[in-house]
């Protein structure tokens, strides 16, 4: 009557399917097309440098390694001792210093552009605040209009007469003490 669908073959966990190679290629082509489109955008309404910095960092690291490799090979052609010195001391130290300066410079650029984006957002907030400041003016106008309404004045004046001003209360308290 009722079939049991708890087959042991169907309960095996499924492995996540990796992204197809064609999808990765499509994304890469899309990124390249977008990059070229932004490269020739003469309106300068978007900061392209933020998207380019990782690629620039990679290319510059490859350039530094290539230059240091050339210097090591050239040093070996002069003398073996000089080549060993360059290979084990000068090149690693040069790479460490160059890569650190490059990284600091690119991070500085990133921070400058992030600050610029935040300033753009703040300008948008300023416009909103300016529009909202007009609301306070209209509220003040409404208060002045409501004070002119006769029954509103009667209500507000009766509330004032019920409460005595502080100076009268103080005078009364001081006269009771004497």
Automatic annotation (TrEMBL):
The keyword Transmembrane helix applies. It holds the Pfam family DUF4282. The chain crosses the membrane at residues 47-71, 83-106. InterPro entries: DUF4282. Keywords: Membrane, Transmembrane, Transmembrane helix. The keyword Membrane applies. This is DUF4282 domain-containing protein. The lineage of its organism: Bacteria, Pseudomonadati, Pseudomonadota, Gammaproteobacteria, Oceanospirillales.
């Amino acid at each position: 009557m009722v079939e049991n669908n708890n087959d042991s073959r169907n309960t095996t966990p499924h492995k996540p399917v990796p992204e197809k190679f064609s999808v990765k290629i499509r994304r890469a082509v899309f990124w390249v097309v977008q990059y070229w489109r932004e490269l020739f955008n003469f309106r300068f309404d978007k900061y392209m440098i933020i998207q380019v910095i990782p690629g620039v960092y990679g290319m510059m690291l490859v350039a530094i390694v290539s230059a240091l490799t050339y210097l090591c090979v050239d040093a070996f052609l002069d003398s073996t001792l000089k080549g060993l010195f360059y290979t084990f001391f000068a090149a690693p130290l040069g790479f460490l210093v160059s890569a650190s300066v490059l990284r600091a410079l690119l991070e500085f650029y990133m921070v400058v552009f992030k600050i610029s984006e935040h300033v753009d957002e703040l300008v948008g907030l300023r416009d909103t605040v300016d529009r909202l400041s007009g609301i306070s003016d209209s509220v003040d106008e409404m208060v002045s209009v409501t004070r002119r309404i006769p029954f509103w004045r009667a209500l507000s004046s009766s509330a004032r007469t019920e409460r005595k001003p502080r100076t009268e209360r103080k005078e009364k308290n001081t006269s009771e003490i004497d």
